Request: fold
Amino acid sequence: VRRNPGESDFHQAVHEVAETIIPYIQDKPIYKEARVLERMTEPDRIVSFRVCWEDDSGNVRVNRGYRVQCNNAIGPYKGGLRFHHDVTLSTLKFLAFEQTFKNSLTGLPMGGGKGGSDFNPKGKSDREVMRFCQAFMTQLFRHIGADTDVPAGDIGVGAREIGYMFGQHKRLTNEFTGILTGKGLEYGGSLVRTEATGFGAVYMLEDMLKVRSQSIEGKTAVVSGSGNVATYASKKLIELGAKVVTLSDSSGFIHDPEGIDEDKLAYVLDLKNVKRGRISEYVSEYPQASFHAGERPWHVPCDLAFPCATQNELHEEDALALVKNGCIAVSEGANMPTTAGGVEVFQKARIMYAPSKAANAGGVAVSGLEMSQNSARISWDETNLNRQLRNIMQTIHDNCLEFGQDPGDDYIDYVRGANIAGFNKVANAMIAYGVI
Ligand code: NDP
Reply:
C-alpha cells in the first residue's frame, strides 16, 4: 500500500490473488524464498506519455497515455488498451496484473500487460477519434512489437480504433507485422476474435453447469453492458436456449421480460456499433421493455448472471439480491466486476462463481491465436478457431477444478483454482530465470 498509494483497484486485485496464493505457497519454499508473488506485484515497466491532438474546431487537446508491462515471463506482454475518461494508472495496473494470470491460464505463450488513456471517445467525431488514435500510436509504437508487446482492444477500443492505430504503426515503421490483435479480417485479423470473450464466458458457465448435470437451455439470464462482451455473451446464450432479459450501459439498464431474441440483438449491435446510440433507445423500438435510469440489472430475478460492463459494478447488496432471487451461477465477462464483498456473498451461498480471469479469457486466447496466424502468415477457418476456443475454455475450467476443490467437498472455488493454475506457470518460469 505504501509503494502504491491510493491505487484501490490495484490493491483489490492483488489482495484477491494473495489471499489464495499465500496459503498455497506456505509449504513450497521454492516460491517463498524467490519472493515470486512480491515480484509479480511490481510491473516490469510502466510508460506514460502525453497524447496531443486537435479537435474538429481546431482546439489543441491533451490526454495521458499509458502502457503497463506487467510480466513477460511466459511470452510477450499482451493485453488490451482502454479509452475511458475514468482510466487511471491504478485501473491499468490492476488490469495488467489480472491479465498476467489470465494469459497463463489460456495455456498460450503470452505475458501480461495493459494500457490506454483517459481520452473519452463518447461524443467525438470519427475524425477526432482517428486523430487521437494516430497521436496515441505515435507515442506507443516505440514500446511495442510482435515479439515484445502486442496490445488489443478493451472498453472504448474496438475495430475502428484498432484500424486507426494499426494504420499509424504501419506508417511510422514501414512494416506490416502483428503488433495489435483484434484487427480487421482484411489486414491480419482472426475470425472468431470479436465473439470470443462473450462466447467464452458462456462456455465457462456451460462447463460449470455440466459438473452439476445442468444446462443453459431454458434458463433466464441477466446481462450487464451492451458492448462487445455483453452482446456476444447474449448471442451465445440465445443460441443455447437461454432467455436474456437485460442489457445496460453507463446510463441504466433495459429489462425485456419477453426476452431479447436474435432480431432484437441485431438491433442492439447496430445501435451500439453503427449508430453509437444509447441502450435506452431500445424501449422506443420494443415498447414492452422498460428502461431503468441510473440502475444496474442485478435485482431482476434470474438463474444466471453475466456482469459484462466494467469493474466493481456488482456490489454486496446486488449479490445478496441475486442469491435471494434464486440465481445459481455467475460468469464474469468484464474484468473484476464483482466487489470483494460480492464475491464473499456468492461463495458463502455456495453458488457457482467464475471470476473474470478464468471466465473472460476466451478473448485473449483468440488474440493469441491471431498472433500465431500472423507469425505464420496464414488464416485458420471459423470451425477450427471455434473448436480451439471451446477447447481452451474447457481446459481453463478443468484447471480451476484441479486447484479449486477440497477432498470431500463438492463446492468448487473457481477463484482459488484460477489463481493457482495461473500462478504456477508464471512462477516456474520466473524461477528458471533466476533473480532478475
Ligand atoms: P465496450 O466498450 O465494447 O463496452 C463496454 C460496456 O460497458 C458499454 O455498454 C458501456 O456503457 C459499459 N460501461 C463502461 N463503463 C461503465 C461504467 N462505469 N458503468 C456502467 N457501464 C459501463 O467494452 P467491452 O465489452 O470490450 O469490455 C467490457 C468489459 O469486458 C471490460 O471490463 C473489459 O475489460 C472486459 N474484457 C473485454 C474483452 C474484449 O475482448 N473486448 C476481453 C476481456 C475482458 P457506455 O457505452 O455507457 O460507456
User: Anything to note?
Assistant: The two ends are 23 Å apart (CA to CA). The mean pLDDT is 97.
